[in-house]
Amino acid sequence: MKKGREKMLGKWITRHKNIILIIAFALLIPSVFGYVSTRVNYDVLSYLPNTLETVSGQDTLVDEFGMGAFSMVVVEDMTNKQAAALEKKIEGIEHVKDVLWYDDMLDISVPTEMLPKNLEEAFFNGNATMMIALFDDTTSADDTMDAITNIRKTVGKDVYASGMSGVVTDIKNLALKEMPVYVAIAAALSLLVLLITMDSFLTPVIFLTNIGMAIVFNLGSNIFLGEISYITQALAAVLQLAVTMDYSIFLLESYEANKKRFPDDKKRAMAHAISNTFKSVSSSSVTTIAGFVALCFMTFKLGANIGIVMSKGVVIGVITCVTVLPAMILTFDKAIEKTTHKALIPPLTKVSDFIVKHYKVAIVIFLVLLGPALYGNSNYKIYYNIDQGLPKNIPSAIANDKLKEHFNMSNVHMVLLKDGLSAKEKNQMIKKIEKVDGVKWVIGLNSLVGPNFPDSMIPEDVKSMLKTDNYELQFVCSDYSSATDEVNAQLDEMQKIVKGYQKDAMVIGEAPLMKDLQDTTDVDLKTVNYISIAAIFVIILVTFKSISIPIILVSVIEFAIACNMAVPYYTNTSLAFVASIVIGTIQLGATVDYAILMTNRYHKERTVNGCSKKDAIRIAHETSMKSILTSGFCFFAATFGVTAYSAIDMISAICNLLSRGAIISMIVVICILPAMLWIFDPIIIRSSWDMIKAGVAHKDAEKKLEAK
Predict the structure, then answer these.
(1) In this predicted structure, what is the pLDDT of residue 4?
(2) Which residues, other chains included, contact 354 with Cβ-Cβ below 8 Å and sequence gap of 6+?
């Protein structure tokens, strides 16, 4: 019944190919509109769970102080009068709520030497002075990024705006410049691979056109999500191209085979091809989707963002593969035949025979590499500092260097206090915080005016910056960089101090957020891997009705993943935290199809055709090898170009792991999987339902008796 419905679908598509193409091209218009209208989020820290104190503290900051972000502005070679004029200019920029500088406490005619020591150290050093610009929106808000851009345009060459908002603004500028190039490089390299591996010059162009349309449909439909991460946007097109190319290859191979069955009826051949492809592609795509869906179980919401967009992209890729692509192939069938050329890749029979024959060597290599791969996979370094993976010549990096050079500071934390503490308690707390390792100074109302200074004498603009009816704010300068062991220990000590005075007090800011990011994603890494392995295990178990086959296939790909992740350890390379989380699930979901393809043919030869173990493995290997090579090299081509080009390490690191992972998975499946099938064949035939029903073990025993 199901097969009949698939054939009816194939017939309907072939009869209405022109209508399908018209609808597909018409849908591009709203998809482009949706793509352009979808907001892109450039701050990965904003994907932390709302339940975290550091995140709720940021919301409190906006609600109470009308401020969600700040930037340390370093000014070189200016007189105090010039600096005061610059301060007014910055305050006049839209979405800059206020600027905190020493003239908010004392007149600029008062010598800086008369300032309290901690304030002098905070605002002055040699020929440099520092201001704190406060923004009326959050770190990654469009308004804040616009304000940073306008500050840079306003202040001139000797003024530098540092801080996370500057980093996010630079990421946005880099991403907007690079993203169109990612797609162009991926398409060009994929086209080159297809031209080499296929026997028509036009077919690769049709493939890429079809996938390109699917990508536009996917990106356009993201408007219903409200916004997507810049990492998701950067990877979506490249990954969708990489993981859905297989489907186009499956359809064409089936169509060419059915044209031989029905030489005078191309529509009938395509109808059968659609039916066959829909069955194989829908089952194959489930494992890829499962890998992406596993990301949705992360508490760090960036995983769900990537997972939803990519799962949707795979589904759209399947739909266009069995609707739009057949219509395009039938429309241009004559042109495809005219551009057919001699295959550039020679037959791989001898190579296949050599690999299968030397299965013992493959097992030895597997056993030798297993230990180092597992050790490296467990011990590679991860970095969480977002600006670490950015070029050193961007404005935010230069500004941060200036901040370090002139004021020997790397971070500014904020202490958010609820109203209720006495001036004496606040001063005691500040003194304790100042004694914490790596703390340079603390700026709050009490540190600005002293404990005996009347509250009524405090300038109203200064008071509004640092105090509301419900909360009071203090800035804490740290020597330590974000996402380091030193700053994390410092934050732990500060938390103990502030919580000792007030349970509702919070330490917030960039470094506390990154500490929570590290704690959150460390748990997510294990969770996502377990879920993806379990989901794909169940899918393979149901597909093959076997206990042993899913164990073998998942183990083979997990070995490939371990080899891939061991490379950073042995090359002493630190990985961006996002790359370490998503790579395992994506590589497993996307490349386990290689193993399924070969195993499916082995399963058919053993069960349906009654082949011996040797013949079944040989046929399965030989018939699937070219498809695996084509798919693997397309995956590599689509991702490697981004690795080579991108200056954003969060993106290039993921693509580097994916491109290398595609090659490693391809090699492992081609070289090691046949050996696994050979060795575990006696277990497979006794633990797979279809093989048990077909009596494969019994037939093998009879053949052995006959041979004797």
Answers:
(1) 55
(2) none
